[in-house]
């Protein structure tokens, strides 16, 4: 077995080394289905940018390749018939592109699916906003969240910074466009009237907004506390919202380097009177175009890039697998990471005013939006350099201090911002609910942060902040022994993070809750030795098996069991055998999403995961049991 493990480790290391870019990073695609491809077509057509026909054509090709035989598009392989919102987005983009007409078979099949599943009224709220912006859907008569909301001070019980960064970056431009009821049609805009089920029905938000009315009281109370002329306050709110967007653009012109936020910002700026040819809008479009990536022979518009995340994880995994820190690949990776440490204050400082910058972000573009996951991942990678190289030691110390400072008051760790967990907001009737609107402590972030401190800093496990983190994890375990992971799929991911974190800070392996978690993992192992979990777990908020194993899920489960067990078990041996037997596996499970973006909305296929996590699990197995 050891010889086969060595061979597979060497194969994975060689594969990853070959794929490294000249700048030291790994730029594997951050794949998120077809929505961003569709929205890019819709944006280019709306702005009447005529010199992008080649880009539109290749995006149309990818969208069509993803269509199912029944005319629908799915956001993950085992989704029942298809996804209504994704199918509407695809149908609209294809028609707007001009490369498909209503009488074409693909459109007829898609139209039939949409009509059979409730029409445009049943799509998610973000897609309705997009349709309203492009003149295909009515804006609501009233707004439950008024634009003056942006003027509420941080001291007010409900304010803009009670929302997660993701929610803010999308909500602020929506507040502007909805206030103006802005929409823009062109001579090429398709007619989507046949996607409404009732004649004369061109969009009605009233039913879904009824449930928002209970939230109007705090908004109304806040507006009542604002001092000044109502018209002046209204214009001031619009100005503040505009400034919020413009002040948070990255060097490439994108808003927070997020596709959806930048798409919405462009429409918000036009609502404020900017020309579609304004340099700010042109630069934003160019920034979005730079998100292009190639997946095989297809072109995909990424939601953002994942270079820092990929690089930190891969460099660490390779070092765990025995690649020397003096190797060229590791030195180049760490030089890249060192240059991506974020030294600017961002919105994270609103709730963490005593901390100084020192974290890392997700993409190669990002400069003021660090997160816990990327920070601890980057610190793991540079760990061996920090002991004898002053410039790395300084980055190490800053990163450690920032990570400790970001611990929530409840003892767990969030992704982006501290104590953004106003539970009132989690009840708003928006797809994704609390997962989108809030940034609470999660098992995956808390577990991996503990794992970093335990394994890479050798922090005394009796430190109060470590004990509080452990207490949060143990308190938030599910009854079946698993933990839910917010940023991966889903319970296997969270359980892996929690177990490895608890083991790293010396939680005894026979602790009843650790034992319960390992027994849960054993119970869900597939007959072939692997593990697999469906994206449905996220939607149903309970573990749903995929009925097929994936190499990534198997690696997470194995790594957790290797950390928890003192001796190799038959189940671990079967899992290792599965990884060795499937080393060349390429099928739908390879491309199955392993990450979450917007729960129930879009999921992420990290192309790097198929290599780095099996490498990490095999490396840890070799060290402990071979």
From TrEMBL:
The lineage of its organism: Bacteria, Bacillati, Bacillota, Bacilli, Bacillales. The chain crosses the membrane at residues 255-274. One of its GO terms (molecular function) is squalene-hopene cyclase activity. It is an enzyme of class 5 (isomerase). Pathway: Secondary metabolite biosynthesis; hopanoid biosynthesis. It comes from Oceanobacillus locisalsi. Keywords: Isomerase, Membrane, Repeat, Transmembrane, Transmembrane helix. Pfam families: SQHop_cyclase_C, SQHop_cyclase_N. Residues 307-622 form the Squalene cyclase C-terminal domain. Its EC number is 5.4.99.17. This is Squalene--hopene cyclase. The gene is shc. Belongs to the terpene cyclase/mutase family. Residues 9-292 form the Squalene cyclase N-terminal domain. InterPro entries: Hopene-cyclase (IPR006400), SQ_cyclase_C (IPR032696), SQ_cyclase_N (IPR032697), Squalene_cyclase (IPR018333), Terpene_synthase_CS (IPR002365), Terpenoid_cyclase/PrenylTrfase (IPR008930).
């Amino acid at each position: 077995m050891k010889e086969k493990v060595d061979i597979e480790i060497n194969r994975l290391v060689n594969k990853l080394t070959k794929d490294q870019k000249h700048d030291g990073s790994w730029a594997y695609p951050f794949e998120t289905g077809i929505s961003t491809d569709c929205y890019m077509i819709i944006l280019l057509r709306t702005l009447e940018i005529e010199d992008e026909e080649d880009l539109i054509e290749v995006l149309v090709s990818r969208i069509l390749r993803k269509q199912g035989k029944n005319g629908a598009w799915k956001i993950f392989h085992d989704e029942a018939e298809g996804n209504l919102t994704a199918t509407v987005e695809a149908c609209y983009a294809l028609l707007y592109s001009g490369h498909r007409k209503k009488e074409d078979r693909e459109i007829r099949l898609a139209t039939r699916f949409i009509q059979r599943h409730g029409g445009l009224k049943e799509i998610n709220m973000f897609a309705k906003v997009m349709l309203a912006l492009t003149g295909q859907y009515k804006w609501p008569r009233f707004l439950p969240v008024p634009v003056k909301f942006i003027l509420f001070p941080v001291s007010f019980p409900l304010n803009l910074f009670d929302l997660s960064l993701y929610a803010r970056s999308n909500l602020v431009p929506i507040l502007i466009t909805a206030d103006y009821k802005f929409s823009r049609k062109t001579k090429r805009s398709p007619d989507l009237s046949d996607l409404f089920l009732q004649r004369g029905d061109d969009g009605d938000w009233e039913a879904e907004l009824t449930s928002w009315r209970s939230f109007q009281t705090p908004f109304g109370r806040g507006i009542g506390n604002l001092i000044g002329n109502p018209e002046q306050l209204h214009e001031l709110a619009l100005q503040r919202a505009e400034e919020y967007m413009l002040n948070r653009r990255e060097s490439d012109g994108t808003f927070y380097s997020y596709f959806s936020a930048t798409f919405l910002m462009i429409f918000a700026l036009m609502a404020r009177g900017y020309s579609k040819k304004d340099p700010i809008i042109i630069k934003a479009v160019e920034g979005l175009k730079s998100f292009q990536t190639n997946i095989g022979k297809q072109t995909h518009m990424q939601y953002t890039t994942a270079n820092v995340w990929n690089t930190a994880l891969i460099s660490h995994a390779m070092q765990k697998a025995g690649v020397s820190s003096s190797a060229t690949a590791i030195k180049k990776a760490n030089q890249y990471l060192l240059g991506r440490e974020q030294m600017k204050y961002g919105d994270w400082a609103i709730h963490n005013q005593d901390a100084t910058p020192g974290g890392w972000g997700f993409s190669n573009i990002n400069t003021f939006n660090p997160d816990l996951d990327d920070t601890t991942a980057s610190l793991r990678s540079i760990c061996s350099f920090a002991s004898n190289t002053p410039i790395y030691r300084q980055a190490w110390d800053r990163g450690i201090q920032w990570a400790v400072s970001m611990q929530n008051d409840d003892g767990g760790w969030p992704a982006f911002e501290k104590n953004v967990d106003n539970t009132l907001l989690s009840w708003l009737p928006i797809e994704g609910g609390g997962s989108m609107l809030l940034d609470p402590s999660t098992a995956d972030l808390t577990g991996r942060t503990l794992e970093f401190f335990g394994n890479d800093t050798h922090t005394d496990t009796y430190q109060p902040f470590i004990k509080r983190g452990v207490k949060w994890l143990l308190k938030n375990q599910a009854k079946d022994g698993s933990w839910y992971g917010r940023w991966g799929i889903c319970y296997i991911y969270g359980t892996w993070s929690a177990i490895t974190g608890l083991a790293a800070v010396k939680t005894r392996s026979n602790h009843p809750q650790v034992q319960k978690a390992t027994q849960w993992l054993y119970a869900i192992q597939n007959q072939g030795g692997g593990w697999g979990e469906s994206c449905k777990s996220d939607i149903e908020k309970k573990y749903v098996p995929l009925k097929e194993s994936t190499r990534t899920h198997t690696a997470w489960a194995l790594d957790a069991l290797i950390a928890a067990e003192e001796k190799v078990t038959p189940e671990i041996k079967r899992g290792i055998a599965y990884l060795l037997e499937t080393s060349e596996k390429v099928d739908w499970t390879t491309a199955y999403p392993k990450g979450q973006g917007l729960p129930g909305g879009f999921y992420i296929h990290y192309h790097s995961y198929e290599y780095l996590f099996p490498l990490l699990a095999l490396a840890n197995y070799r060290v402990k049991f071979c």
